[in-house]
Write a structure and sequence with these properties.
This protein is α/β, with parallel strands linked by helices and about 675 residues long. The protein has a domain at about 550-675: ANL, C-terminal domain (GMP Synthetase, Chain A, domain 3). Helices cover about 30% and strands about 20% of the residues. It has 20 helices and 31 strands. The strands form 9 sheets. A 7-stranded mixed sheet has the order 5-4-17-16-18-19-20, sandwiched between helices. Helix 2 (about 55-70) crosses helix 3 (about 70-75) and helix 13 (about 395-400) crosses helix 15. It is globular, with a radius of gyration of 25 Å. The chain binds adenosine-5'-monophosphate-propyl ester (PRX). Adenosine-5'-monophosphate-propyl ester (PRX) binds near residues 422 and 547.
């Protein structure tokens, strides 16, 4: 049963090759931690014995090779993919533009499906799907697909999309709940060489329209609705609203999920089952160039307009697959569960492409992990004998809050590895995850990466890397992680700086769809020749990375990335609002909560339910997850002489270090602003 942290062995703080002792307490702007000393957890010997990478020395040798002979290293690694045509050159790097595996051809869906079947694994379970249950806990729907069955569905879907006019190079939007059809549609696009753009089902109609318009999508795959905490999410209704005024979007495929009546536009809309039933379960995969755009995924940046991050087929798939081996130490009998939605990059890389390329058995769960009962997630782990659980710190913190009695009711002995992603994990949550869920037995992999990196960039190798709660530990092979000052010089161990990546890597984004200048400007204009992540971090004396959170105008709310400018532009879209400034405030549960400072148009009274209306307005413009926690009216926003909003000041005010109350007056802010200006 659960042991306490004190029962666990501690590594002596003498690393093999790095100087220095235990790290200082973490200086985290987002989640502050008070621990004076970080405990160190060596890989459990029983885990290391069976692991693919068994020692720190093995990891270091791999890492050294990847840095000293990157092309030879990646050429060797690329053998784990099935190539229709071998590549001629590993890398063409004309900074900041990379092309990997030039001349090579392959198909991602073939790599995820056909080759496993050809190897005799067609009968292995690929997907286990559970729909959200009824409110009384009775199962509503469950489906399982073997690799052979999944391939047949993917082929039917690919044929149906082709019949609707989809060709190699077209874009297809996918706006679905977490149902098997989401993975099937993605793989069907990949099979044809149509670039998919999945839009998270929590996005509103307006946000959906913006993304479909930017991507120039020709076909949309959606559903009549989705289940969330017993309520229906009206996806088709949102899609209908989004599609008004999108002439390039010709056809809509509608998955029947809820059975709710929805309007079907003749000549445009067709039900998924009707479109697929007349199609054959066979479809030749199209051989695509290594650099062919596999998908576009929109993510928030520092302007109001989301960025369409473009990923290329081969490099992306390669690192998604390799990290399944390195970080999740995937074995054939694992039941692997990543709780992310396919609408985010984690769902792309670690629900669909990475695990299926590595022939995993993947669990998909449609509902919320704590509905209808707080122990829903642990009930699934027990029933399905889950071995690997990959989730977000916000979820972990909500499980802590709900109480240990919930996991305590369940047999969690099938778990062998636990993962965390999306935001900094505070050491308290890490320790709880380790002790209560992992029962002291399971290594924890805190994985740092981004939509743009495509795959995990920094994380422990579970059989090799000693872990420190709160640190994502060491860079994975191929990832030239550095923390530098504004001049690009590495900062000394323990000092904070900008987190950058010094060398190209195969799964790096290739561009921003339709805006190549923004690619250069956003990622390569800060530090010469290096990719800037937007994060602040420090590296301790052992070479361990401690991510401190975003240092640009992006905030991370419950693991969801949001641009402050995006929320601001939603707010100023309301007729009452003159100006808005949005900042993050530390939040025990979500990591960061959104606080909006709003000035109203002359003559508009800050009366009644206006705050509530503004919060709802943001939910309509972006999605419910972007709804500000708090709206504060101010009679003006504090600005520098050059007119820039003083966000640091507003952050202090939001965090309770400045004027409080229902209305923030100009005098309050101007006094603080004057003080600040003297400081700056
Ligand atoms: O700030 C970092 C944070 O999430 C950002 C990337 O967000 P997104 O592109 O939506 O991808 C999320 C899933 C990979 C990063 O810039 N972040 C992600 N993982 C971690 C993290 N911060 C600290 N520790 C992590 N493990």
């Amino acid at each position: 049963m659960a042991r306490t942290v004190d029962d666990l062995p501690r590594m002596s703080a003498e690393p093999a090759s790095a100087p220095g002792g235990l790290p200082e307490p973490r200086q985290n702007a987002v989640i502050d931690t008070a621990s004076a000393e970080s405990p160190v957890f060596p890989p459990p010997p029983a885990f290391a014995e069976r692991a693919r990478i068994k020692s720190l020395e093995e990891y270091r040798a791999l890492y050294a090779k990847s840095m000293h002979e990157p092309e030879a290293f990646w050429a060797e690694q690329a053998k784990c993919l099935q190539w229709t045509k071998p590549f001629d050159r590993v890398l063409e790097w004309q900074a900041p533009h990379a092309q990997w595996f030039v001349g090579g051809q392959l198909n991602a869906s073939q790599n995820c499906l056909d080759r496993h079947i050809a190897d005799g694994h067609g009968g292995k379970v690929a997907l286990i799907w559970e729909g959200e249950p009824f409110a009384d806990g009775r199962p509503r729907e469950e489906r399982t697909f073997t690799y052979a069955e999944l391939l047949a569905e993917v082929c039917r879907c690919a044929n149906a999309l082709r019949a609707l006019g989809v060709k190699t190079g077209d874009r297809v939007g996918i706006y679905l709940p977490l149902v098997p059809e989401a993975a099937i549609a993605m793989l069907a696009c990949a099979r044809l060489g149509a670039t998919h753009s999945v839009i998270f089902g929590g996005f509103s109609a307006e946000a959906l329209r913006d993304r479909l318009a930017d991507a120039g999508a020709k076909v949309l795959v959606t559903a009549d609705g989705g289940w969330r905490r017993g309520a229906v999410v009206p996806l088709k209704q949102n899609a209908d609203a989004a599609l008004a005024g999108l002439p390039h979007l010709e056809r809509v495929v509608v998955v029947r999920r809820t059975g709710e009546p929805v309007s079907m536009k003749p000549g445009r809309d067709i039900y998924w089952d009707e479109a697929l039933k007349r199609e054959a379960p066979v479809c030749e995969p199209v051989a695509l160039d290594a650099e062919h755009a596999l998908f576009i995924l929109y993510t928030s940046g520092t302007t109001g307009k989301p960025k369409g991050v473009v990923h290329a087929t081969a490099g992306y798939l390669l690192q998604a697959a390799l990290t399944m081996r390195w970080v999740f130490d995937l074995r054939d009998d694992d039941v692997y569960w990543c709780t992310a939605d396919v609408g985010w990059v984690t769902g792309h890389s670690y629900v669909v492409y990475g695990p299926l390329a590595e022939r995993a058995t993947v669990l998909l769960y449609e509902g919320a992990p704590n509905w209808p009962e707080a122990d829903r997630i642990w009930d699934i782990v027990e029933r399905r004998r889950v071995t690997t659980l990959y989730t977000a710190p916000t979820a972990i913190r909500s499980f802590i809050k709900a109480g240990d009695q919930h996991p305590g009711k369940h047999d969690l002995s099938s778990l062998r590895l636990l993962g965390s992603v999306g935001e900094p994990i505070n050491p308290e949550a890490w320790l709880w995850y380790h002790r209560v869920i992992g029962e002291g037995r399971c290594p924890i992999v805190d994985t740092w990466w981004q939509t743009e990196t495509g795959a995990i960039a920094v994380a422990p190798i579970p059989g090799a890397t000693p872990t420190k709660p709160g640190s994502a530990t060491l860079p994975l092979p191929g990832m030239a992680i550095e923390v530098v000052d504004h001049d690009g010089k590495p900062v000394p161990p323990g000092s904070g700086g900008m987190l950058v990546i010094g060398k190209p890597w195969p799964a790096m984004l290739r561009t921003i769809h339709g805006d190549p200048k923004r690619y250069v400007q956003n990622y390569f204009s800060q530090i010469r020749g290096k990719y800037f992540t937007g994060d602040g971090a420090r590296i301790d004396g052992d070479g361990y990375l401690w991510v401190m959170g975003r240092i640009d105008d992006v905030i991370n709310v419950a693991g969801h990335r949001l641009g402050t400018a995006e929320v601001e532009s939603a707010l100023v879209g309301h007729p009452a609002v003159a100006e808005a400034a949005v900042v993050g405030r530390p939040d025990d549960l979500k990591g960061t909560a959104i606080v909006a400072f709003v000035t109203l148009k002359t003559g508009t009274a800050p009366a009644g339910d206006l705050k509530e209306k503004l919060r709802a307005h943001v939910a309509t413009a972006i999605g419910a997850f972007a709804r500000p926690e708090e709206v504060r009216f101010a009679d003006a926003l504090p600005k520098t002489r050059s007119g820039k909003i003083m966000r640091r000041l507003l952050r202090d005010v939001a965090a309770g270090k400045g004027p409080q109350g229902d209305t923030t007056t100009l005098e309050d802010l101007s006094v603080l602003a004057a003080l600040r200006q003297e400081e700056e």
